[in-house]
Write the structure tokens for this entry.
Amino acid sequence: MASAPVTFVGRRDERLSQPGPAMPWPRPAGAPGAFHVMAKPTGAICNLDCAYCFYLAKSELYPGGRFRMSQATMEQYVRQVLESQEGPEVTIAWQGGEPTLMGLGFFRRAVEVAEACRRPGQRLLHTLQTNATLLNDEWAEFLAQKGFLVGVSIDGPPELHDTYRVDKKGRATSPKVLAGLGLLRRHGVDYNVLCTVHAANASHPLEVYRYLRDDCGARFVQFIPIVEHAPSPGCPAAVSPRTVRPEQWGRFLIEVFEEWLAHDVGQVFVQAFDAALASWLGLPPGVCVFAETCGNAVALEHNGDVYSCDHFVDPAHLLGNLHDRHLLELLASERQRRFGQDKRDLLPGYCKRCDVLFACWGECPKNRFALAPDGSPGLNFLCAGYKAFFHHIDGTMRLMAALVRQGRPAAEVKAVFASAPRNSPCPCGSGEKSKYCHGVAASQ
Ligand code: SF4
Ligand code: SF4
């Protein structure tokens, strides 16, 4: 059992500019042992003007605000996260807006504070999600030295990336992004790529994936579908023209999956595929959108306000401020627990009867504004895409899960495909002859 934190809280707090609320002890019922905070030190402020960015509109929540996290708020965030996590590894995550607008000094100090507040044996992982356009050698050196994991937003080759990812003057951003990425690579910074999938790049899955893998050297890729709900009186489920269509999303995932299976399984980590394998193994997927319930990932605004989730930064989901109430108390609050359980409890009957519910769980509630075939509300807009994708990978996932259960690497699935007789049904369960299905890729 963990010892009462008061012993170190008192000691550590002397190093911080303000004491802040004490950690509730004993831990409140329902408090998660591990959780994630997405801290936005510049709030919604960014140096770019990406067409689909939902953050930019969020600045209206704080009219006249400076959108710069104070040192006192940074200290409270770091201290409260470190003292309330039960596991040995703790992530201090920074996101935007564009967090590098805070300047390097802010992050140097944040690392110092984290070191000061770290419990013996606690390992720190600093992460930073950035558009990479403001990085220079000094930044890259710092990020490498402190072991940051940096997420870079890239939507594919320049002609696709620059469709929506533009600066305040509407100019292409890819030259600066690639320069920033080059700096990270030269300095040996650990990085991954976050790629949003939208109307402009959704029809180019292989072009996008191969570019990220081959030109950007990405070994960890996260694809995020852009869904912008734009309801009108006559059409409550309408979406913006930038939104990826459900069938497009499904096809995108399927094509990337097949490319990954043929060439990269075991070498490149694609978050959605890893989550799927976990689900087929009966394990937690590690990604909130595919989990049964959520609520353990809150968003922290520049002024200390804490919201239920980064996708629900609005007055109805404001849990409180970490200068008044400890993060752990906010996470354990009945309101936040309910928020997380609603992900499962409010699923429409159509989802509850779905054969891939165990892998999909209705994805993110923010996208649940479509009608189910039986007319009931609350179906995920991307449902058709997810159904197609999860059905497509079912056979392969079963094989991979069986390998993992035997203590063998999932990548051995290629050997399973290669050993299947050419004229027998493919082991993936497609019904095709092996030589026309995965037998082809496996023999390449
Ligand atoms: S609302 Fe969506 S993004 Fe937020 S925690 Fe839940 S599943 Fe994740
Ligand atoms: S695939 Fe569709 S029906 Fe099935 S759980 Fe996902 S959103 Fe619901």
